[in-house]
Known about the structure:
By secondary structure, chain A is of the alpha+beta class. Chain A has seven helices and eight strands; from the N terminus they run H-H-H-H-H-H-H-E-E-E-E-E-E-E-E. Helix content of chain A is 54%, strand content 19%. Classes of the chains: A alpha+beta, B mainly alpha. Chains A and B meet through helix 2, helix 4, helix 5, helix 7 and strand 5 of A and helix 1, helix 2, helix 3, helix 4 and helix 5 of B.
Amino acid sequence: MNHDQLKELLPLEALGILEGEEARALAAHRADGCDECEAELRGFRETLAAMALSAAGEAPADLIWERLERRLDTIAADSTTPSERAGGRGVAVAARRGELRRWRVSAAIAAGVALLMTVVADRSARQLVATRTAADAQIAALANRTRERDVQLIERDQELTSLREQLATASQMTRAVLAPDFHMIKLQPMPPAPDAAGLVAMSASRGRCVVEVAGLPIPPPAKTYELWWIGSKSGPVRAALFNPGPHGGATVTPGMPPAGETILASAVTLEPAGGMDKPTGAMYLKGSP
Amino acid sequence: MPKTPASTLPDQALVHAIAGGDQEALRTLNQRYGQALAAVAGRILDDKADAEEVAADVLWQVWRQAVVFDPARGSVGAWLMTLVRSRAIDRLRARNVRLRPLTGSSSVAEVPDATFDLQAAQTRNLVAAALKNLGENERAVLELAYYSDLSQSAIAAKTGLPLGTVKSRIRSALIKLKEALRGSGDQGAS
């Protein structure tokens, strides 16, 4: 299949319904790195998102927030102090004692009618309270275990997603490194981040480029890092936006530098969220081929 | 310097704030997208409670994974819609229920004047108009492809259309929709 035929498959790919040979052919084409198809695909996905966002909904955001707040509370509850937890148990015990007293009062009234009936009622009340207390404890324990399982499940799901992304990136890096025209640029730290480092792996024949950075500080609100190609003819050309993870690391798969351009250097700067057309902020990493 | 209220932040900055543990930013993101998330999940699952749960799942995932959001790969809205569709379809597969009938689709949200983002509201209106301009056949097949867990072959079997017709209708509908939105300068899920 040629490029134009593959391009016709992009709407179906955006919907995730491509099958068989068509799916394999398009996957191979994308793996080879086709900026035009990637941009087109992004456009179709944005279009589908816009369609979905226009759908009428019945659920008020408040109802969703209530569900979300319960999960946030679960996490917060895990960090409560022992004294807070003990205080909570004290309230529950006091409530149950109050209930016991009410039963005892009932038993005392019954005692006015017949002493024998009082004894029976009192015993029954004690048994009932004991049974209810045990059941309450079991329900609370089960609820706690369910919440813990939910949190674990979500965390496993997130780990799986993260591992898939890492695997996909590693595959791209491997393809770039194995290319006959592979070359790399080592990014050196600049004064704002003396512990930062980076590596650009690139293959023009495969149209593939992967950038790995580490040791970058978390950018302040409304700021993001921007990667640049600095060409001999066009100067700085924007390559990618990214935010590092909790440990300051990130793997970025930018577009290739402009065709025919000689790359003099690559750099990372801190820019306003959304990025800029030309560098305006402090430079954090820079390297030359 | 006083903190900027979350409600005035653009989507990308909201996600950044969420990555920093800002619950108010998460609440704002829910106000902007919660209803749409539940609507998409509801169309796929045909169950209001499940849809709310899936919407909450998605926002919970954002809360835990905001740092992995890459603006170079698409907008926040597109990211959220991808997550909710994927999660809703996963849940559908898990419970193996029957799909919602094709009929009665395409209700479009009324967009109030005072929304968080006038541009987003304009885009929604554009989508509504563009969907109305699609032929009923094109729109129905496109929506079936988006809001179901059916492959293109399964869509052909379900609708009784030849596979080639299914493909061409989906392609044509999505291209028309994309072209209609291009005029807005931003495809909405900003």
